[in-house]
Amino acid sequence: MTATKGLEGIVATTSSISSIIDGVLTYRGFDIDDLAENASFEEVAYLLWYGKLPTQSELDGLIKRLGENAAVPAGVIDQLKLYPKNTNSMAALRTAVSSLALYDESANDMSKEANIQKAIKLQAQIPTLIAAFARLREGKEPVAPKAGVSIATNFLYMLTGQEPDQVAVKALDQALVLHADHELNASTFAARVTVATLSDIYSGVTSAIGALKGPLHGGANEAVMVMLEEIGSFANVEPFINAKLANKEKIMGFGHRVYKNGDPRAKHLQKMSRELGKLTGNMELYEMSVKIEELVTGQKGLKPNVDFYSASVYTTLQIPRDLFTPIFAISRASGWTAHILEQYDNNRLIRPRAEYTGPVDQKVTPIAQR
Ligand code: ACO
Questions:
Q1: Is residue 2 part of a domain?
Q2: Residue 3 gets which letter from DSSP?
Q3: Which of 351, 303, 309, 306 is nearest to 332 (CA)?
Q4: Cα 255 to ligand 1 centre (Å)
């Protein structure tokens, strides 16, 4: 038995949800470039769950259902109030999503219908939890979700308590489309491993959030912003990046296990970053990002991934830095739950082997002689 570090190149399941073939990402056979330009996040969530794009009335039905399910139990809000003031936002989300199960009587109902309902409920409640967490830590009361509006609109509304700007809504919606699913990424795999034991959907999504939190995965978007803040100015980009590369340090937001010629999502976020910069009259973050790309690609051949330009996009939308990865979770909840439903439909326990590299033939010596 020989281990493959990081399971690189290992095909662990079949799936009909999304594919990455020759650098092209598709959801249910639709190119991400087409979806990014021509579909809303709710259409994409419907596509991931049901395998087809919705008709207008199916879309209206889904938006209505998301709205009806967006409120979170008062007990979960009470718990959020008790979290320590400086709680990490992804740790808060992980804990809060886990606690949602305690208030759902159907949490352990494994029927298909109940699981689809829970997928929609989780998709609707995750934005509410994140917005409530963000407000409570500032000493503000949570804002109740609105019915009949998109998730992008509702999230920005619940975060600020104000009607969001349409440019911001459009940008966030497109970012949600781009992050919705990504084949067998680390968090989706974590979700599938968890539910393959026939554990419940809340456990699967909680596992996924734990995996997404890390800086090698979803946490990279926040780490990119930390780096941009540390660099501070366009003039400092070159010395900063050169020093990092000379020290063989990783530059967050670059590289990918699967894409070696560039992440197809990155160009959309780059365009968005440029357009938002122009609109707000502040191009500095965009220009710093382009310069970083020029240096990292030039010297290491590494291309930006989905996380790189999302940092400047979210900052320009005035979203606090530590909500970047939770926003990723809002979007990926659609993919996680679609994969969980697919796993239940054709389940087998996921239980690989390990190549043992430890000592052999050990004998227990009495404790006094050790
Ligand atoms: N900066 C500098 N060097 C890098 C980077 C980077 N961002 N990424 C990879 N490399 C180098 C590694 O140091 C390594 O070099 P070596 O062979 O000389 O040791 C080589 O490229 C291969 O890198 P691995 O880390 O082994 O590649 P792996 O496929 O395991 O990792 C990963 C992929 C985790 C995305 C990696 O590129 C990385 O750490 N990037 C930065 C974090 C990041 O942006 N993560 C978000 C990914 S997208 C997402 O999850 C949403």
A1: no
A2: -
A3: 306
A4: 5
* Cα distance between residue 318 and residue 327, in whole Å: 13
Is the pTM here over 0.85, yes or no? Answer: yes
Residue 221 makes CB contacts below 8 A (sequence gap 6+) with 253, 307, 310, 311, 314, 324, 325, 328
Cβ neighbour number for residue 213 with a 10 Å cutoff: 22
CATH code for the domain of 259: 1.10.230.10
- Strands 30-31 and 24-27, sheet pairing: antiparallel
pLDDT digits (tens, 9 = 90+) for 232-260: 999 999 999 999 999 999 999 999 999 98
The alpha carbon of 322 and the centre of ligand 1 are apart by a number of angstroms equal to 22
* φ, ψ dihedrals at 152, nearest 5°: -60, -45
Active site residues: 256, 307
45: CATH: 1.10.580.10
What is the per-residue pLDDT across 71-119, written as a single tens digit (0 to 9) for each? 999 999 999 999 998 999 999 999 999 999 999 999 999 999 999 999 9
Q: Assess contact for 159 and 134: CB atoms under 8 A.
A: yes
Q: Rounded CA gap, 154 and 270, in Å? A: 24
Look at strands 24-27 and 18-21 and give their pairing: antiparallel
Q: Which residues of 279-298 are buried (b: 16+ CB within 10 A; e: fewer)?
A: eeeebebbbbbbbbbebbee
Q: Which ligand 1 atom is at minimum distance from the Cα of 249?
A: 2
Same domain, 80 and 206: yes
User: What's the total number of domains in the chain?
Assistant: 2
Distinct helix (H) and strand (E) counts, the chain:
16, 3
**Ligand 1, atom 30, residue with closest C-alpha:** 257
Which phi and psi angles does 151 have, rounded to 5°? Answer: -65, -40
What is the residue whose two structure tokens read 């456990």? 203
Report the pocket of ligand 1 as residue ranges, CB < 6 Å.
Answer: 6, 216-218, 220, 250-257, 300, 302, 305-307
* Phi, psi at 19, each rounded to 5°: -140, 150
Percentage above 90 pLDDT, the chain: 99
d(CA 59, CA 56): 5
Q: Which residue type is seen at 164?
A: P
Task: Give the number of the atom of ligand 1 that is nearest the alpha carbon of residue 256.
Answer: 35
Q: What are phi and psi of 21, to 5 degrees?
A: -125, 125
